[in-house]
Design goal:
Order of helices and strands: HHEHEHEHEHEHHEHEHEH
Largest sheet: 8 strands, parallel
Strand order of the largest sheet: 7-6-5-4-3-2-1-8
Distance between the termini: 42 Å
Oligomer: single chain
Bound molecules: pyridoxal-5'-phosphate
Strand content: 15-25%
Helix content: 40-55%
Number of strands: 8
Radius of gyration: 20 Å
Length: about 240
C-alpha cells in the first residue's frame, strides 16, 4: 500500500471501526481503574456481537456475562477458550446441560430445584460448578431471588447438604431501579450484612455480586466484590 492510499483510508468511513475499538477499550480502562483491588469486573455482553466481545478481549478482559444460555453457547463456541463465562440471567432448568461443560459462575441461582439440576449436570461433566445464590433485595416484585427466611430454610435443608458438584461461592443481588440513591445504598447494605452473616457458616462464600452500570459505585462502596457492567462498556443495547 502506498502512502496516498493510506491517507485515503484514514479519512474513510472505516475509521469509525477504529473509534469504536478505542471506546470499548477506553471504557474498560476507565471502569477498571475506578475499581478497588479485589473487585472483579464482569463485562456484560448480552446482545453484543462476537466482534465487540473480541475488542474487549483484546483489551485484556476475560470475564463476560450473558443472560441467555443459547446466546452464551454460540459465543463460547466462537471465542477464545480462556474466557470465563458468567450466566447472570434467570436460568431455565432444561438448558443447564448446555452450559454445564464450561460455565465459570452461575449468578442467578434462585431455587433448590435449579441447584439440584446444576449439581447433576456438573457431575455428568466431572465438574464442580460455582454458583451464587440470588437474594431478593429490591422492592420490585418482578426480581427473582431468595429472601432471608427462604435462604435459611434452603441452606438448612437435608437436600442442600447432599449436593456435591456445586460450590456456593457467594450471593448476587439487584437493587431497585430507581433514582433514589439512598434506597439503592440501603438495599446493597442489607445484602452485604446478610453476606457477612452467612460467611461465618458457609466457608466458600467469597463473592458478593452486586452493581451494574447505573449503580456499581454505590455497590462497591457497600462491599461488592464483583460488578456486572454492560452498557457503560459496550454502549446502550438496542434490544433486551
Ligand atoms: C444486563 C444486566 C447487567 C448489566 O446491565 P448494564 O446496566 O448494562 O450495566 C447486570 N446484571 C444483570 C443481571 C443483567 O441482566
Amino acid at each position: 500500500m502506498n502512502s496516498s492510499s493510506r491517507g485515503t483510508a484514514a479519512t474513510s468511513p472505516g475509521t469509525k471501526k477504529v473509534r469504536s475499538t478505542m471506546s470499548i477499550k477506553q471504557n474498560l480502562h476507565t471502569i477498571q481503574s475506578s475499581l478497588p483491588e479485589g473487585v472483579r469486573l464482569v463485562a456484560v455482553s448480552k446482545t453484543k456481537s462476537v466482534e465487540e466481545i473480541l475488542e474487549a478481549y483484546q483489551a485484556g478482559q476475560r470475564d463476560f456475562g450473558e443472560n441467555k444460555i443459547q446466546e452464551m453457547h454460540g459465543k463460547w463456541e466462537a471465542l477464545p477458550k480462556d474466557i470465563q463465562w458468567h450466566m447472570i440471567g434467570h436460568v431455565q432448568r432444561n438448558k443447564v446441560k448446555y452450559m454445564a461443560p464450561y460455565v465459570a459462575l452461575v449468578h442467578g441461582v434462585d431455587s433448590l430445584k435449579l441447584l439440584r439440576e446444576i449439581d447433576k449436570r456438573a457431575g455428568q461433566n466431572g465438574r464442580v460448578i460455582s454458583c451464587l445464590l440470588q437474594v431478593h433485595i429490591a422492592q420490585e416484585e418482578s426480581k427473582f431471588g431468595f429472601d432471608a427466611t427462604e435462604l435459611e430454610a434452603m441452606i438448612q435443608s437435608e437436600e442442600f447438604g447432599k449436593l456435591t458438584h456445586v460450590k456456593i461461592a457467594g450471593f448476587m443481588g439487584m437493587a431497585t431501579f430507581t433514582e433514589n440513591q439512598e434506597q439503592v445504598r440501603a438495599e446493597f447494605r442489607s445484602l452485604k450484612a446478610l453476606f457477612n452473616q452467612w460467611q461465618a457458616r458457609l466457608p466458600d462464600l467469597q463473592i458478593l455480586s452486586m452493581g451494574m452500570s447505573g449503580d456499581y459505585k454505590i455497590a462497591v462502596a457497600e462491599g461488592s466484590t464483583m460488578v456486572r457492567i454492560g452498557s457503560s462498556i459496550f454502549g446502550a443495547r438496542d434490544n433486551h
